[in-house]
Give the backbone structure.
Amino acid sequence: MIRADSLSKHYGAIKAVDGISFGIEPGEVVGLLGPNGAGKTTTMRMCAGYLAPTSGSVKVHGFDLATHTLAARKTFGYLPEGAPLWGEMTPRAFLDFIADIRGLRGAARAARIGEVAELLQLHSVFDQRIETLSKGFRRRVGLAQAILHDPQALLLDEPTDGLDPNQKHEVRELIRGMSGDKIVVISTHILEEVEAVCSRAIIIAAGRIVADDTPAALAARSPSGRLDHVFRSVTTGQERGAVGEER
Amino acid sequence: MRHVWIIARRELRAYFATPVAYVFIVIFVALSGVFTFYLGNFFEREQADLTPFFGFHPWLHLVLAPAVSMRLWAEERQSGSVELLMCLPIAAWQAVLGKFLAAWCFIAAALALTFPTWITVNYLGDPDNGVILAAYCGSLLMAGAYLAIGACISAACRSQVVAFVTTMVVCFAFLLAGFPLVLDAFAGWAPQTLVDIVGSLGFLTHFNAISKGVLDARDVLYFLLVIAAFLYANAIVLDLGRGN
């Protein structure tokens, strides 16, 4: 499980994330929602252990990221925002490298690399340099890297950003197939995605959690029964309040 | 150590993934030849040693080592892949050491390819090959110190060009610390102890000692300590970038 306790990240006076707490149990597919700049990526980066929180803590499967960093990192796979990769490598060399780092060995290793390449349909570009690949393929190579060691938890920062509708569909299928007894956290601002794959939605605005429920229950909060109406009312409500105060 | 080796291997392959690596090696070997035979008056001296060859190494490395080290972290920060790297189950020191070793191996390969000069001097005369070996070690150690400084500066930069220029200036200061130019500036007013300390910090003082064939443990230790200090600083710079 992943547990965040009053997690904050301040940059000077700017509170990018301001006291967020949540617990995610195995089997949940959580959508981290919010407008651009709400603190989604900062939250993901703290959950993945890339950024150190200003205050608060994150525990992944019981390991505190600040003190048992390496043990915690072994239990999850992470796709950073924009799926950064090493462009001069081929997907084959890249996945070999990740497998080495993750300590996969012997026949299981070759089998797993083949399996992941099959799952993400990478075979046709397996020996092409990553920098020559299309955005869709790059995203899939990034996903392959995240799931290679069959992690108990997956943190995916905007996994379908920049993909065409078919590719989005494939990635969502993949996420649905991955869930079960695992934890999947995806950050996104695409609401249909949350309704399609998530069992729970956490909406963040201005660094705070403004809603945390199942997508269906959230949608039911609006008379229209539409998630985008609820999203707009909870994420813009605060800004309107701020403008009101100024007056 | 296994993770260090995995990182180093990936970095080394990254160097050779583009023609830049080959261009670099050709320039390194060609320049060292030009310096030795034209500027160093190798033939006119009529002495069977490689003093003119190694005499130019501090300056050759000063320009070329920052070019090797500049991409180590700046490139990863630019593309964002540093996030991918730092979220893998490896410790920061393993990444730092792995990257440094890759750069050092690269320079070592370039240095090894200057062997025709060594063959030439052995063909023409009867040099002291022990001295030459010591000088090669000294050259490699000094390049390592430059690279460690460069790696640390690269971690603080997003732009490779800024990393290159800054590294060259800092390395130049370290090199000059042993020169009369710098020492005279201190000698007028500072106590002799301070002058000695500044002088002893200079790369050139230590390199010249080694290249004369005296592989003194203190000179070797000096370079190793400089490397260790800057790699440690490199890890701290990375940590600061993550908000620790």
